[in-house]
Every structure is written in C-alpha cells, then in structure tokens.
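User: My notes are a mess, but here's the protein and flavin-adenine dinucleotide's SMILES. Can you give me a structure?
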Amino acid sequence: MIAQNFDYLTPVSLAEAFDLLNDPGAKVMAGGMSLIPMMKLRLAAPERVVDLRHVPGLNKIQQDGAMLRIGAMTTHHELESTPLVRAACPLLAQAAAAIGDVQVRNVGTIGGSIAHADPSADYPAALQALEAEIRIAHRGGERTVLAKDFFQDTFTTALEPNELIVEISVPLEAKCTGASYQKMLQPASGFAIVGIAARVSMDGGKVSMVRVGVTGLGGSSYRAANVEALLVGSEGSAADIGKAAAVVAEGIDANSDIHASAEYRAHLARVYTARALSAAIARAEAQ
Ligand SMILES: Cc1cc2nc3c(=O)[nH]c(=O)nc-3n(C[C@H](O)[C@H](O)[C@H](O)COP(=O)(O)OP(=O)(O)OC[C@H]3O[C@@H](n4cnc5c(N)ncnc54)[C@H](O)[C@@H]3O)c2cc1C
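Assistant: No problem, the inputs look usable. Here's the predicted complex:
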C-alpha cells in the first residue's frame, strides 16, 4: 500500500525541528524503518514528516566519565561496529547486532527504536539491564528519564507530544562484569519472541551485582527484579541460575500471538534467562 500524501521537511537544527513539530499534523522521522511501514499500512497518517537526519550532533558516541553517551540518531550498525561501544558497552553492541537485517541496521536508529517501543524490540532489554538514562528535549528545556520509567506499555513511552529523544547514556562496563543478550527471534523479521539481557558482576566467587532486562514477553520491557534478588549473593552455579530464571515470567501477562502462545513465551523466557545469566557469569569470571 502507498502512504497518503505528506510534506517532507528537513530541519537543520533542533530549534527548527521543534518549530516544525509544533503542529499537530507533524511527525518526526529518524530512520523511517518503523514510521514508513506504519504510514503505508495507514496506521499513521502525518501531514508533515520532519526528518531529523540533517540536524547536526545527534549521532555522536562519546565517553563521559563512567558513562557512554549515544546520540539518538546513531544507527544500529554504528552501535554494533564502533570499537568504543564494543569495548565499553558490549551488551549494547550485542543487542544492536541482533536487530533485523543489515539494511534495517544501516538506517534504523536507537532513538527511533526506543521511541517506537515495540514490545518485541531488542534495545529495551539491554537498556533495562544497563539502567540507561534517556535524555529528552523539548523547546526550551530537557529532562532525563530512567529506562525503567521510560518504557510504559505497548508502543507507549514517557515521551510527551513535541518532545524528542536526544541522547541515551549507559554505564561503561565495570571490571569483573560480564553481559549477554540472548533472544529467540521471529525468523521473518528478526524481532524478539523473547529477548533477555543479563549483566553480572562477580566478587570473591559470589554474584555481587545482577541486572536482568526482558523484552518480548509482556506488553513492555521490564527489569526482572525477582530474578536478580534470587541470584545476588549466590555462587552463580547452574542450580542457582535455574532457580532464579524460573521466576522471570511470574506476575507478567505474557503476550500470545501467531508466533508463540503465552505459555510458550513464558517457557522461552525461563530458558533464555538461564542462557543469558550463564553466558554473563562466564564472561565475568573470565576477566
Ligand atoms: C524488516 C524489519 C525488521 C526489523 N527487525 C527488528 C528487530 O529484529 N529488532 C528490533 O528491535 N527492531 C527491528 N526493526 C525495527 C527497527 O529497529 C527500526 O529501526 C526501529 O524500530 C525504528 O527506528 P527508526 O530510526 O527507523 O525510527 P522511525 O521509523 O523513523 O521512527 C519510529 C517512531 O519513533 C519516533 N521517533 C523517531 N526518532 C525520535 C526521536 N529522536 N525522539 C522522539 N521520537 C522519535 C517517530 O516519530 C516514530 O513514531 C525492524 C524493522 C524492519 C523494517
């Protein structure tokens, strides 16, 4: 299907973008990898599309103290291939590399992906496990929202109308910490039927820190605090991992669709949580 007619606008500054977006018929576009299909399906019908690609400074990746700051227009490919990201935040690089196919990764952006908040998208799991900070700008100001507060429901985030994501900050990987993103993908699109991101620190043979982010299972990504509570302080043995992974789907209203029933998704979540935790612990111990 062909999208309905629209004006295509290319601001060259953030201020100009805010001016153009101060119009109820306007919609911002980053890579267009989700927006354009939605327009073709007539799920979105903006009268004006405001393309952010010519706004300078939105695709920088820079280290700032113990944080890595990533511009919202950074593409999935840039995140999977930039040496600084691969070394300082391998979990994010791994999640980026797991997205779709090479065409999608070359054009799609981290800001567009998290604004879209598809319940099966890959970044949300990693950003939950990384306790990422999302910097959001509006005309005349900005605010920072934690990943746990940003992702609210299916295709629903903390973004207000006329706000733009400008940057995502994640911590640099600490010593004795390992991370892993494991997903069961839907073979046609690559989206996660279930995706689990785990970060684990080991200290003196015990798990001293663990973070688990989940995507694909419920209406929105979440941090599995119950899994974390069971694993922290343990030796991280296979039995410890199995016991902790067993609770990952507890209390979650699991999605059910043509790709997987709710029961199967919950089963996959337990299996992939165990895999992600095992891989993260092995990496932490190898350091
Ligand atoms: C064939 C295919 C396979 C895919 N497979 C996967 C997959 O396996 N895993 C996965 O996670 N994703 C997958 N995707 C989605 C892909 O990651 C998209 O790149 C992403 O969802 C949207 O990013 P974008 O930059 O293209 O955003 P756009 O499509 O341009 O925008 C998406 C939404 O975000 C809004 N938006 C964009 N930028 C901003 C901003 N800076 N601030 C506020 N709002 C903004 C737009 O208005 C729009 O509502 C796939 C897409 C396709 C087409």
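The longest strand covers residues 192-203.
User: Great, I'll file this with my notes.
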